[in-house]
Write a structure and sequence with these properties.
3 helices, elongated, single chain, mainly alpha, 78% helix
């Protein structure tokens, strides 16, 4: 033995005391899983609720797509309208500025 070390003896029943909680946990987990599958077999799925949720999600998805398309088209129309107004104004300056300049001449 190395000087200054000591020897620890573990009683033989310690290993059994460590396994019993593990067995209890495994049995409890097995029981929970068994009851879950038993309930799934007895209680049918609510297909109406599932289909309603699926349809609602699809409608929200389509709404987001159409809203993006609407915003894109409205921005395009707004840019076109601004471009047409600039063309009719005949200048890149605002019409009020042009009017003030014409008044000064």
């Amino acid at each position: 033995m190395i000087a200054g070390s000591y020897r620890v003896e573990i009683s033989p029943d310690t290993s059994v005391r460590e396994i019993i909680p593990l067995l209890i946990v495994l049995l409890w987990y097995t029981m929970i899983i068994t009851f879950r599958y038993a309930l799934k077999l007895v209680v049918p799925d609510n297909r109406h609720l599932i289909n309603t949720v699926r349809n609602m999600n699809e409608a929200q998805y389509m709404q987001r797509i159409e809203l993006r398309r609407f915003h894109r088209e409205s921005r395009k129309q707004q840019r076109k309208q601004v471009r047409v107004q600039k063309e009719h104004g005949g200048s890149r300056y605002p019409i009020q500025w042009v009017a003030l300049f014409d008044d000064q001449k």
